[in-house]
Each structure stands twice: as C-alpha cells, then as structure tokens.
C-alpha cells in the first residue's frame, strides 16, 4: 500500500476450528434526515468432470508433492496473519485489514499469480474487525493465492492513541467529498481508496454486505472503468429499506429521535472508565446473542464504542432510510453478467419479496436465496460457511483469468 505500513503484521489465529486470536487493530466521527451536520471531528461451481481444474486447485496441487493427497482444509488450520493499518482517505482516518500482500500491490507484478484484488465493503456499522473471520476463511479457501482486503467506513473507527496513521500522498478525494460520513460520501471514500492505493489495471472482485452492496452498485455506476470481474452482493439492502420490518423500527430511532439518543450515550461513554468498557461491550453482545468469548467481537466492539463512531453510524443509517428507496435497475441491467445476489430467507432488512421482485425483473441474473438459514449479520456466526460458498462461486471467474 502507498505510504508504507501503519502496524506490523498481526497473527490473529486460525481461520477455523480453534480459538481465534485477538486482532490488534482498533479503531477513529453523521447527520440527520434533515441534513444537519453533527459537530464531530473527522478522524456455484460445475462438477470436476465438467470443466478443467480451477487455478486455485492447480495452485494447491502444484504446492504439494506428487505423492501427497490434496487436503483442502490444511490452509484453514494454519496460522493466517492479518495485517492492519490506518490510513487517511478523503481526509478521514480509515482502517484496512489485509490477508495476502499488504505492501504496494504494484510490487507484486511478477509473482506468477493473476493480478487480482478481492475487496470487501462492509455493512453498517462499518467496522472492519468484525470481518476478520470471514477475511481469513476466504483467503484460506482460495488457497492464499489472491489478496483479500476489507476497508472500514469513513468515521466508523478511531485509531488508538500512539498508532501510526499513514497519510495518503495526493489524496485525490480529500477535497472533493463534502459529506464523507453520509451515504454518497462513503461511496466516494471507497472510490478514492481504489484510486490512491490500487493500480488502475488491477482486476477486482468486490464483495458487499448489507449497505455495502448499495455502495458497490454506485461504484460500478460512477466508475465504469474499474476492472471488476465480479461483484458479490450478500444480503443486499439496495431498495425500500424504510419499508422493511427493521426499517420501520429504525426510521423513528434514526431519523426522528437520533439526537435525543446522543445525550445518554455520550454521558455513559464519558463517565464509564476505560477498564469497564470491555464489560459494556460484552453486555451489548450478549443482548444481541453474540458469542462474547470470541476474541474478535469484543475488541471490534470496543473500537466502535466511541461517541464520534456511534454518531457517524447513526447518521449513515438515517440516510439509508431516506435515500435507499428505488432499486437501481439500470446499473444492474448494465452489469448483470458481473453480479451475484444472495438474499436471506428470513432477513428483516430485505424480505423475500425483494428477492422475488428482482428475480422476476432479471430472470437471467445470478440471484440466489439462502437455503442454510444464515442471518443478515452472517459475519457474527457463519463466516466460515459463507466463505466456503463464496470460494466455490468464484471458481469459474478465477478459471477465466
């Protein structure tokens, strides 16, 4: 990455079947539906006989001796390092977590691998740390052949004190984005990251989750020159968010009562000693039925328990309720061969009727309905299973590279 590293490579534990290590990446300020700016600081594959082996499979075979049995799980049992760094993008501190090459990508031109980057765009809150298990599992599932990165949303994470933040030379998006914490700003934030940190000719696979799917569709519309091989949209919130079951609850909280909720949150976080914040994080996670013994979720939650981060996530949510209304069928039609949609069967953010409607409008599209019972927030409980499926879905695209 341009500008060097901010943190050292951090092993965070095996990708599967074992205690996960602690990701030593913590994190740095949103507006109302009335557009008032808060005074916050910036900181499915074919059978094996139906086609030749995929490049992933060939790479795995090449890495073993001729007498060895191929064990697809072996990479998942190894220690997989995750490199974390903080950079400035559009003038805002941003966290990027990486499996695979984490220096400037252009320095890896002669490694013999197809020149490809897999980039994950998060949901809201945009905390990259929550995606570490999925990041590692996907990297391992592709036999460590392709770099897999995840980027936080602008303003959803703060760099801890003493952490090196790498400035971006010629940050082309720094002066262009007026509202970097809003929905439009988050799109421009991701485009600026690609402009400044990824070679222009680099092929891309984009993976979006929740509102990250909306961001990806906007990126494809605004930057058609991007070398996108495929975009995977997981549990996509790309239309009628305010009309969804969860949206009907979120609208009054995020659009009408948001400022009223800031004060108690501010008081609690202001008065709560740092030593007690892990207990608060565990209490909140238990309330959400999330495993508090997971050594990823608690540290990731702590990075978010900062008033600017909470306010920015709430602000982005208010804009989602207001602006994510009509599906962008034009962009979908223009890119239908590059898109894969994966809807939840019981997703209160995008009900099954949304799946049925888009399936009816685009019968030729790769539009799937979950049959495994995964929840909208799959990253909290089903990262390995989802990574296994995504790895399989990508085989044909990787074979054609």
The total number of structural domains is: 2
Largest sheet: 10 strands, mixed
Q: Count of helical segments?
A: 14
Looking at this structure, what is the CATH superfamily of the largest domain?
Alpha/Beta hydrolase fold, catalytic domain
**What is the terminal separation in angstroms?**
23 Å
Structural class call reads alpha/beta
In the CATH hierarchy, what is the architecture of the largest domain at level 2? 3-Layer(aba) Sandwich
Mean pLDDT: 79
Shape: globular
GO molecular function: sterol ester esterase activity
Keywords: Endoplasmic reticulum, Hydrolase, Lipid droplet
Region (Disordered): 1-68
Enzyme class: hydrolase
Chain-wise SSE layout:
Blueprint: E1 9-14, H1 55-62, H2 74-77, E2 79-89, E3 92-99, E4 116-121, H3 132-141, E5 148-151, E6 165-166, H4 183-197, E7 203-209, H5 211-222, E8 228-234, H6 245-256, H7 258-271, H8 277-287, H9 297-304, H10 307-323, H11 329-334, E9 339-343, H12 352-361, E10 366-369, H13 383-393, H14 395-399
Parallel strand pairs: 2-6, 4-5, 4-7, 7-8, 8-9, 9-10
Antiparallel strand pairs: 1-2, 2-3, 3-5
């Amino acid at each position: 990455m341009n500008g060097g590293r901010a943190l050292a490579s951090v092993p965070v534990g095996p990708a599967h079947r074992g205690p996960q290590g602690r990701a030593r990446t913590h994190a740095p300020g949103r507006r109302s539906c009335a557009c008032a700016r808060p005074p916050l600081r910036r900181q499915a594959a074919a059978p094996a006989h139906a086609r030749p082996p995929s490049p992933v499979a060939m790479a795995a075979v090449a890495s073993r001796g001729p007498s060895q049995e191929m064990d697809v799980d072996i990479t998942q049992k190894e220690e997989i390092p995750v490199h974390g760094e903080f950079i400035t993008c559009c003038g805002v501190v941003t966290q990027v977590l990486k499996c695979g090459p984490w220096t400037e990508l252009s320095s890896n031109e002669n490694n013999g691998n197809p020149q490809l980057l897999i980039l994950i765009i998060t949901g809201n809150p945009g905390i990259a740390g929550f995606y570490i298990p999925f990041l590692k599992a996907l990297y391992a599932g592709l036999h460590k052949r392709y770099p897999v990165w995840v980027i936080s949303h602008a303003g959803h994470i703060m760099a801890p004190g003493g952490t090196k933040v790498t400035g971006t030379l010629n940050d082309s998006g720094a002066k262009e984005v007026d509202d970097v914490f809003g929905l439009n700003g988050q799109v421009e934030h991701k485009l600026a990251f690609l402009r400044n940190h990824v070679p222009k000719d680099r092929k891309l696979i984009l993976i979006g989750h929740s509102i990250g799917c909306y961001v990806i569709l906007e990126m494809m519309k605004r930057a058609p020159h991007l070398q996108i091989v495929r975009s995977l949209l997981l549990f996509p919130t790309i239309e009628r968010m305010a009309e969804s079951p969860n949206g009907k609850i979120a609208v009054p909280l995020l659009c009408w009562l948001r400022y009223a909720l800031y004060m108690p949150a501010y008081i609690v976080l202001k008065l709560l000693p740092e030593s007690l914040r892990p207990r608060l994080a565990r209490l909140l996670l238990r309330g959400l039925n999330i495993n508090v013994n997971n050594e990823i979720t608690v540290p990731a939650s702590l990075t978010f328990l900062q008033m600017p981060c909470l306010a920015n996530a709430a602000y982005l949510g208010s804009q989602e309720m207001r602006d994510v209304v009509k599906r962008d069928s034009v962009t979908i039609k223009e890119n239908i061969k590059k898109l894969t949609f994966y809807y939840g069967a019981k997703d209160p953010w995008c009900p099954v009727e949304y799946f049925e409607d888009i399936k009816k409008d685009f019968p030729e599209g790769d539009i799937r309905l979950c049959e495994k019972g995964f929840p909208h927030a799959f990253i909290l409980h089903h990262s390995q299973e989802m990574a296994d499926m995504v790895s399989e879905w990508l085989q044909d695209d990787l074979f054609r590279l």
